[in-house]
Amino acid sequence: MRLSTKGRYAVMAMVDLARHSGGKPVALAEIAERQEISLSYLEQLFAKLRRAGLVGSVRGPGGGYLLARDVGETRISDIILAVDEPIRATRCHPSSAAGCQSDKSRCLTHDLWEELGNQIHLYLSSVSLADVVGRRVLGSSRLFAAHREAPSSGVAAE
After folding, report:
1. What is the DSSP string of 19-41?
2. 15 with 95: CB under 8 angstroms?
């Protein structure tokens, strides 16, 4: 599976932009400082985000970047796809009849990993920038952590 630093940092920066914009341009230097991301790296990411139509830029004093779309219309998958390759869990190329084996066949677990990649994409497509900014992303990982940390009942199994 490939969710690189580019994708993660782009999402972090876009959430920051959405939180701090208030309809006014935000300087990348401010985002870089708040998110602890290199300014030169952010410049590369925002060039891709601008080409994808997710942000607009304003030059000059007081310039910076603005969201090009409403926060509710911008999907997390849009951000990741703008700066990264699509998220894949297989070594094979999507929609290719050829598999990743030396004889071009598909491995036994191909369908499993391909479906995992599809589920990740579906999930990221279901979450908007507004959901993340508003902290409305379902945090089931907390449930797993709580379950692991819960003390045992003290009843011995017989």
Report:
1. HH-TTS-B-HHHHHHHHT--HHH
2. no
